[in-house]
């Protein structure tokens, strides 16, 4: 029989997609990783031409610690090029919800593990099963040493692309050569011919080489002898593409020079329900990321100023706990219920570590601050984690404060202060106080409670149904417990067109992922029968609490206006007892021709206002033409715990929760009346700000306002003592406003300080970094949305630009003496 000629080339990618957590706990995933890697090593011994593709440094770390003999076998196979390292991340993370710095740390710890143990790093990003991919990832991938990218979701039915192979371009202009896997990343049958024939339908055009993935997956397994035998048989028979045992890096080298199209957008919307489902893991993730970033900053300051040892090992261990739980089936909310007990504990470990490091740093610093003695007074040192001046409300519990008291700053200036409800239900000895602190850039200031009457200060105007601070007037809808009117006194503009912030409930019969769903718009009711009461009124703030009902669920919102602050703060408490429904808060505006912008990982994303459910981070902004006046105005919605939004014409929507059946995956059809566990039952709390503004979010500095809400100052009660530090000081500052320093840490190799700088507005700029604590000033040129990592070496050498893994130096940063 004559062998037919090949019809192109398929790079056969032998892999074993392993979910360390999904419908099982991590302990079972641990065992399955060992079993799968043992199988892969056996196949490598039996088949001299077989190549195995492996990602996820966390999995290999488990093997290194638990089975060092097996790890040595793997190391030998990596050295000979038959165990292909891909991914470069700690795990195959969710690719929409981690912060920009979360993605950076995936590559930092993943690539450094590969380098330390195998003498090489990965060059191909690899997330076959993740449910969508942020449009800002190309820059992070490229600067982590990952020049190529492989994914599968969204599929062609969810996101049309110009080609299987394309250049994926980020907003900053970074490009990575990217491949979308056809049909599936794992195979279940022994004979691969049906899968291979299906993939041949993808051949054509300029790209005649494709990757074809095979191997048992999800719960591990990997390629089988039967798989490999069928590949050999098909090659012998001919008539199909050449089936080449290969790996992703070999494939990308083969197609590197082809002319393929460019895709300059994100890759969504597979499984939009994952942006909101399981509120707990979403909140734990954001809290832990930000707590560790703040802990690093303050630990650096304490090390540089006081010599306190930098807790590198503790921080690395805590970050790895967070990174593991960013795995796509954990952070997405799709794992079994008991898996979230493990996730809660691991995020808790990271949060506790950050708390201990933060406390050690600020206690060390504040003990060296000069605090003058004043009889009967109580001093506080308050630390600002941001490299710009902030005005932020402080709340703190204290004891022994007399009936009449005041607060002054370190210069003796009296500050409006207000007593608010204590967390302790005891006698009057324990009190909770709030005041507005004006803090210097990345520094601290000393405030003192004095046993003397405070000067008279006007209160924020309030009643049971309205608040007014002279900048904004808020009126409550007595029926829904939401907002009937928000008037911006500065422009005379009414922010909302109709009731806002009312709890709206949508029907949601979809599975945990919301497979096949793109929006939630089947309204079944609203929270109503509200009760509204004036909770507090004073010179710092006034607050109205509203409570509304829907079925057996309760929605409580505490609306607060602070004196002289241009936002409404809303603290939300939900007691939810609904089934297969979505709870949203809706904000219909007066804007015409609106544009919606979402915070993305180290960047922003603009999308249509078509009502689709969208992932976002701490803020979303709607800007357009204010209908009555024709002026450009906008509304930024900022929150500390949620990731899911929509924009429909002139309306913003914040998705508070979903309550599908836990770990329910189509096509399983639940039994009507069956006893299933439902998600997001019970109580949860979060905070959002409504920030109306003139012009655009850029002009309003929305990224800095979002940082102010979510990265809070640290308050330390002190005593009287002399010290080498002044009562107020600043240690780091950056200008202009469209540049942010997001990270300050010790270098991984402990040879200097690392700063992460990002341009936030899409406007190229020269950032000026003033670093008094290192006696340096840096001038850093940033392109639009550019992310730079700067190393300031110990000993005073020139500042250097690094890649994100800190394994490569890309030249000197512009530098000037202090």
What does this structure look like?
By secondary structure, the protein is α+β, with helices and mostly antiparallel strands. The chain has four domains: 9-270, 7-stranded beta/alpha barrel; 378-457 and 713-717, Sandwich (Immunoglobulin-like), CATH 2.60.40.1180; 461-710, Golgi alpha-mannosidase II, domain 4 (Beta-galactosidase, Chain A, domain 5), CATH 2.70.98.30; 732-818, no CATH class. It contains 13 helices and 48 strands. A hairpin with a 4-residue loop joins strand 13 and strand 14. The longest helix has 28 residues, at 279-306. It starts with 8 loop residues before the first strand and ends with a strand. Keywords: Glycosidase, Hydrolase, Metal-binding. Residues 268-347 form the Glycoside hydrolase family 38 central domain. This is Alpha-mannosidase.
Quick structural overview:
With 818 residues, the chain is an alpha+beta fold. It is 22% helix and 34% strand.
């Amino acid at each position: 029989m004559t062998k037919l000629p090949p019809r192109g080339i398929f790079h056969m990618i032998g892999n074993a997609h392993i979910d360390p957590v999904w419908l099982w706990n991590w302990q079972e995933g641990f065992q399955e990783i060992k079993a799968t890697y043992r199988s892969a090593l056996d196949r490598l011994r039996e088949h001299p031409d077989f190549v195995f593709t492996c990602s996820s440094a966390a999995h290999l770390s488990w093997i290194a610690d638990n089975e060092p003999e097996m790890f040595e076998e793997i190391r030998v196979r990596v050295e000979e090029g038959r165990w292909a390292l891909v991914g470069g991340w700690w795990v195959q993370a969710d690719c929409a919800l981690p912060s920009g710095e979360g993605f950076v740390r995936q590559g930092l710890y993943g690539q450094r593990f590969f380098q330390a143990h195998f003498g090489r790093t990965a060059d191909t990003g690899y997330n076959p099963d993740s449910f969508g991919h942020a449009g800002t990832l190309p820059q992070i991938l490229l600067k982590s040493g990952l020049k190529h990218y492989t994914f599968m979701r969204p599929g062609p039915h969810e996101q049309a692309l110009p080609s299987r192979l394309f250049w994926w371009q980020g907003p900053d202009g970074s490009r990575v050569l990217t491949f979308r896997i056809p049909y599936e990343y794992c195979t279940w049958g022994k004979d691969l011919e049906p899968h291979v024939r299906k993939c041949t339908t993808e051949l054509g055009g300029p790209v005649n080489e494709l990757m074809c993935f095979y191997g048992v997956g999800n719960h591990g397994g990997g390629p089988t002898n039967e798989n490999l035998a069928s590949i050999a048989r098909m090659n012998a028979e001919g008539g199909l593409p050449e089936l080449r045992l290969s790996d992703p890096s070999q494939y990308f080298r083969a197609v590197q020079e082809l002319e393929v199209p460019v895709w300059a957008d994100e890759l969504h919307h597979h499984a939009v329900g994952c942006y909101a489902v399981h509120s707990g893991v979403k909140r734990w993730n954001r809290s832990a990321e930000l707590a560790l970033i703040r802990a690093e900053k303050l630990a650096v300051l304490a090390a540089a100023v006081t010599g306190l040892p930098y807790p590198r090992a503790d921080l690395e261990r805590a970050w790895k706990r967070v990174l593991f739980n960013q795995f796509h089936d954990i952070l997405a909310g799709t794992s079994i219920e008991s898996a979230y007990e493990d996730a809660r504990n691991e995020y808790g470990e990271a949060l506790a570590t950050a708390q201990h490091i933060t406390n050690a740093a600020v206690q060390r610093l504040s003990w060296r601050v000069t605090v003058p003695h004043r009889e009967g007074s109580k001093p506080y040192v308050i630390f600002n984690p941001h490299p710009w001046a902030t005005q932020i409300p402080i709340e703190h519990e204290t004891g022994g404060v007399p009936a009449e008291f005041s607060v002054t700053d370190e210069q003796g200036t009296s500050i409006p202060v207000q007593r608010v409800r204590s967390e302790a239900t005891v006698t009057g000895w324990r009190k909770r106080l709030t005041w507005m602190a004006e803090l210097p850039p990345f520094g601290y200031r000393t405030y003192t409670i004095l046993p003397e009457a405070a000067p008279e200060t006007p209160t924020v105007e309030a009643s049971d149904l309205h608040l007014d601070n002279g900048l904004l007037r808020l009126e409550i809808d007595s029926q829904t417990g939401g907002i009937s009117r928000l008037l911006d006194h500065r422009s005379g503009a009414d922010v909302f067109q109709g009731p806002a912030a009312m709890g709206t409930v949508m029907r949601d019969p979809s599975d945990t992922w919301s497979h096949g769903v793109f929006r939630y718009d089947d309204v079944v009711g609203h929270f109503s029968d509200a009760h509204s009461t004036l909770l507090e009124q004073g010179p710092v703030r006034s607050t109205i609490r509203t409570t509304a009902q829907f079925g057996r669920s309760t929605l409580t919102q505490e609306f607060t206006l602070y004196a002289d602050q241009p936002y409404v703060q809303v603290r939300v408490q939900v007691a939810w007892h609904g089934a297969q429904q979505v709870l949203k808060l809706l904000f219909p505006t007066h804007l015409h021709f609106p544009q919606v912008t979402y915070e993305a990982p180290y960047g922003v994303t603009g999308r249509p206002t078509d009502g689709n459910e969208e992932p976002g981070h701490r803020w979303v902004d709607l800007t357009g033409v204010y209908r009555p006046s024709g002026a450009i105005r906008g509304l930024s919605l900022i929150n500390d715990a949620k990731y899911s939004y929509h924009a429909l014409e002139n309306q913003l929507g914040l998705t508070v929760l979903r309550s599908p059946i836990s770990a329910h995956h189509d096509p399983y059809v639940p039994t009507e009346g069956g006893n299933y566990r439902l998600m997001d039952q019970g109580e949860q709390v979060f905070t959002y700000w409504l920030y109306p503004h003139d012009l655009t979010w850029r002009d309003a500095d929305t990224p800095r306002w979002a940082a102010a809400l979510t990265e809070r100052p640290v308050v330390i009660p002190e005593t009287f003592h002399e010290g080498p530090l002044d009562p107020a000081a600043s240690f780091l500052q950056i200008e202009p406003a469209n540049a942010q320093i997001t990270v300050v840490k010790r270098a991984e190799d402990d040879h200097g300080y690392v700063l992460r700088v990002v341009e936030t507005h899409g406007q190229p700029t020269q950032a000026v970094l003033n670093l008094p604590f290192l006696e340096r000033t840096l001038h850093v040129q940033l392109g639009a949305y550019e992310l730079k990592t700067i190393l300031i070496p110990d000993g005073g050498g020139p500042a250097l630009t690094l890649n994100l893994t800190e394994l490569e130096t890309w030249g000197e940063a512009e530098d000037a003496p202090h």
